[in-house]
Amino acid sequence: MSHPPDRTHYRSTFAILAVAGASFSLLQSLVAPALRDIQLDLHTSTTGSTWILTAYLLSASVATPILGRMGDIYGKKRMLVVAMSALSVGTVMSAVAHTIGVMIAGRVVQGLAGAVFPLAFGIIRDEFPPERVAFGIAMISSILGIGGGAGIVLAGPIIEHLGYHWIFWFPLVPVLIATVAAVVVIPESPVRAPGRVNWIGATLLAGWLVALLIAVSEGPDWGWTSARTVGLFAASAVLLVVWVRAESRAAQPLVDMRMMRLRGVWTTNTAALLIGFGMYSSFVLVPQYVQMPASTGYGFGATATEAGLFLFPATLAMLLVSPIAGRLSSTVGSKVPLVAGAAVSAGAFALLAARRSEHWQIYVATALLGVGIGLAFAAMANLIVEAVPREQTGVAGGMNTIMRTIGGAVGAQVSASVVAASAGASGLPEAHGWTAAFALCSVALVGGLAVALAVPSRSRATVRRPALERS
């Protein structure tokens, strides 16, 4: 396939997309180590500070498929600029916030940029030479994990030496640069899906996602069997059923249920759910574990900065492995790195469950996690792109991102609850609680491995895709 002269600067496009994705990922995780400082400075409660994370999560989950669909209809570049502009505005709001209300509002606006990743996948598919598509998508997809890990590593030094406001000011610079560069450099996609946004479907999607994620986020505080938690889970289940039925009957659905039923799509989405469970759990469990005082008999008494450094091997490994995953996707197909990534990640958590008394054991385990997550994340985006028609790339990628987010939210909260349930008379968790939490993550990733093995090969996905396009 030849590319017109004005569409050949794909390397510049890739650089802009990489900066945009990294900025979003950093802002997602940089906040976590700062929650205690923000809580004290803004005179809010623990629940109030938790909403700084929850608001971002909810906003990103709702906006991602909607903006992804709008990108398919109105243009991916246009929606990318909208998402990055929202990220810029929300970041400034959070940086200058002096009340918890303004901080949470800023995080809601920031979360609209969750659509950056599915929009980026669509732009790469439309603009890159065919032989570079798999590599480009793999690299951008891996940035979600790389940025998340880097945020945990960088947050400690920034907070200790400059204050938590700077965790917003620093990322704002690349966000603004990427936004302006996207307007100037990235060409608008020639691939469109004529139609309109199904706002009834969008409202129902937002309803079941909000109910589910609030229940997951607040469950540890409210109690998993409390009326509020159970009620929200029930409401989410009902709204999910109604949403699926409404989308199945809609003339122009927000999410095509025929697409979601494709084997290459539902297996990859299920793998994303289970692998996301493990990745986000590691961001919560490892820093907390190494910060436990040595008096517990297992902790290292690490500072926030030192705790972040225990995740540095994971970030470095993801950065090194991502290009390899891209090449594998181009040569042997994306299923191979997905299977390998799930297997290595499961082994890393098994190692943490069995051996974690020495610093080097944690470093080895997090390095393996980085290898596994880097391979898996790079593969999942390519599998989705290979399985769906070109004009549905945005919304399909958005749904895959949502599945990772849901898995991560459930994994982080359930793992933390398992650890908290083991607290002894001292109020600190017992060693067996950490063992159970790490083992649970390993089991989830073994499940992800089983699903990954059921993902169709590239040849089968390619054969089935035209069938959907003709129907």
List the helices and strands and how they pair.
Elements: H1 10-29, H2 35-41, H3 46-74, H4 76-96, H5 100-111, H6 116-127, H7 130-161, H8 166-185, H9 199-222, H10 227-249, H11 257-261, H12 263-291, H13 304-309, H14 312-331, H15 335-354, H16 359-387, H17 393-420, H18 431-454, H19 458-470
Helix pairs in contact: 1-6, 1-7, 1-8, 2-3, 3-4, 3-5, 3-6, 3-9, 3-17, 4-5, 4-6, 4-8, 6-7, 6-17, 7-14, 7-16, 9-10, 9-17, 12-16, 12-17, 12-18, 14-16, 15-16, 15-18, 16-17, 17-18
Number of domains: 2
Q: Within the CATH hierarchy, at the fold level, what is the topology of the largest domain?
A: Growth Hormone, Chain: A
> What is the straight-line distance between the termini?
25 Å
The parts where pLDDT drops under 50 for at least 5 residues are 1-5, 459-471
- Our estimate of the beta-strand percent is under 5%
Task: Name the helix and strand elements from N-terminus to C-terminus, one letter apiece.
Answer: HHHHHHHHHHHHHHHHHHH
Mean pLDDT: 86
Count up the helices: 19
The CATH level-2 architecture of the largest domain is identified as Up-down Bundle
Task: Determine the fraction of residues in helical runs and give it as a percent range.
Answer: over 70%
Cα-atom radius of gyration: 21 Å
Structural class: mainly alpha
**Number of E strands:** 0
CATH hierarchy, class of the largest domain: Mainly Alpha
CATH homolog superfamily of the largest domain: MFS general substrate transporter like domains
